[in-house]
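Hi F.,

I've been meaning to write this up properly since the lab meeting, where we talked about keeping a consistent format for the predictions we share between groups. The idea is simple: the sequence comes first, exactly as it goes in, then the structure tokens exactly as they come out, then a line or two of notes. No screenshots and no reformatting. I'm using this chain as the first example so we have something concrete to point to.
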Amino acid sequence: MQATSTTDWRSTVLLTLAGVVSAAHLAKLASVLPFVQGTFQLSYFELGVVVSTFNVIGAIGALMFGVAVDAMGHRRAVLAGLGLLLAGDLLGLASSTSLAFVLSRVIEGCGFVAVSTAAPSLITRLSAQRDRHRAIGIWSVYMALGSSLMLLAAGPVLNAFGWRTIWAIMGVVAASLMLGIRLWVPGVTVPPKAFLGWFGHLRASLWHPGLWLLAVTFACYTAMWFSVLTWLPMVTMHTAGIGVLGSAWLVALVIAVNIPGNVLGARLLQKGWPSGRLMLVGSSVMLLALGGIFGNSLGLGGKYLLCLVFSMVGGMLVPSFFSAAPDYASTPAHVGLVTGLLVQGSNVGQVIAPLLIGREFSSNEVFVAAAARPMYFFGAAAVACSLLLVLLSRSAVHAGSHAAR
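Output, unedited:
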């Protein structure tokens, strides 16, 4: 898969920071929702549109973003994505109407999907084969790190200066990263006309059942993870009486412990663990943890400890997704395509999970029992898909050994 014999670690770090910044753009709205709603007098429907913009764009178009990323070049696509984030920041900063603000989030959403599709593809191509798992492991912290940093930092800035200052700061950060990547991250030479016949490459990649299993498992993982993050503040504020700031810190800690899980998962992959086995172990533990989180045998403290275990173990799955995806690309120049399908699966999970939980909650008075049903389904589906990936991998190994004879 890789043509390079050395790994560009500086580029890996800079591209990971681009992912962290894009994830922070996703999370920044959650910290200021009441203030934005008050500024623009948004209805609850309009507020829902604003909140779901990023995930809907990813759920609908990430695969085609991947195709476009391969066409324009991965480095150029990362720069374009950061440019879109910057443009969204500036428009949001200057917005005086709800329409302009919603448009700013649409622009930022496109930038987020572009960065999250192109950056891991470029990291893969700038990494030696022996270092690929380690490099992707560094990248895999982007969502948890960006989200937790934003949740922790937004409160003090918001209280002191207002929500528009957060938009201004994020614009400066995005512009700085654009400059750093332009100066220090090399592009990857693509053979002339390499993108011609893209539909054939798309069909060849999507023909692999393993890629679809990978995307479905990622969708189930994100559905479980984001559902727990949605459920936790509701319980801490409404049941335990913890304030908004305290609940935000509790949620930020659950997000943050995902990071050591990312690192551990990358380390296990580097030591030779198959990605399918890692997904199977991680998703099984997550499913078991859900039983305790939504059961009746533990108090709130015990449930919170299980949330920490759930998030940390779940973090091991993320590097396995991004490490396995390039194996399904028809050529190194088309890694963005398969990464796009992964990102699309992730966003589908983030879109459908709150909808299912909200539907259950609307017809039940007990939120814990209502939330458990769809999440048990996602957990069982993740375990089943991971098991199928393990079996597919073993059958491929056996087929290869027979062919060698």
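Notes:
The domain at 9-184+198-404 is CATH 1.20.1250.20 (Growth Hormone; Chain: A;).
The first helix runs from residue 9 to 40.

If this format works for you, I'll send the rest the same way.

G.
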